């Protein structure tokens, strides 16, 4: 099935109160687990990759694009946390069907201007755009600086941002953080509901790893349509591999890879069920 846009996989999420998972990948085994889970459950899915430590993406991306083209369900290939117009431009040329421009550390006015530039470029190429307003915080294990504090998204500012930029989806800050949590976060669901009432595009949750199942369900009921999952998912898979290392130490490398794919598939399936993602 041809790769699809973010709008396509998020269709009906708001009206029917479910979310679609965005699962980051950095290797072949994990990619297979994500896509096999989507195919087994017959649900749309978002495969995310971006400018963070991992393999040489100039070699990895051709495989990723080819593998997605051979799926039997709608898949969006999403460029996660693009740091600039230039980064998003490279991602579009490389073949992504959706990009995120993360201008959350910029001033409100500069974030609007940079995001609007990306939207104009991306839409001309048939690519969808996710923006971010407010800043999802960081923990010591985050991909972002641990000194960053969570800055909550203001509902009126979110509405203005969407109107002036034309983004297709909006990441908002309601108390989550990237990485692992030292203690349970306190999420501002009232704020989320106010944002939802003023913003028509799908809302996105970053930093969902470590939240309780009930927090996830409440976030979806309150308006989240796309939920990013990475840290806890990969830690769970790593822990499962670690528990079997004595037996796997005598296995061939492809056998270890198969185990990783199976564990990743199981975890992604669990998230799909938790998010209530609807089959196609």
Could you provide a short overview of the structure?
The protein is α/β, with parallel strands linked by helices and 280 residues long. The chain contains twelve helices and ten strands. 47% of the residues lie in helices and 16% in strands.
Structure description:
This protein has 280 residues and is of the alpha/beta class. The chain has one domain: Alpha-Beta Barrel (TIM Barrel), CATH 3.20.20.70. Helix content is 47%, strand content 16%. It has helices at residues 6-9, 13-16, 28-41, 57-69, 85-94, 108-124, 155-165, 189-198, 213-221, 231-243, 245-248, 253-275, and strands at 20-24, 45-50, 75-82, 98-101, 128-133, 137-138, 169-172, 177-178, 203-205, 224-229. The chain has an 8-stranded parallel beta barrel, surrounded by 7 helices. Helix 3 (28-41) links the parallel strand 1 and strand 2. Helix 3 packs across helix 12 (253-275) and helix 10 crosses helix 12 (253-275). The longest helix has 23 residues, at 253-275. Residues 139-150 have low confidence and may be disordered.
- Class inferred from helices and paired strands: alpha/beta
Looking at this structure, what is the CATH superfamily? Aldolase class I
Low-confidence stretches: 139-150
What do we call the CATH topology? Answer: TIM Barrel
Rounded to the nearest angstrom, the radius of gyration is 18 Å
Examine the secondary-structure arrangement and name the CATH architecture: Alpha-Beta Barrel
Gross morphology: globular
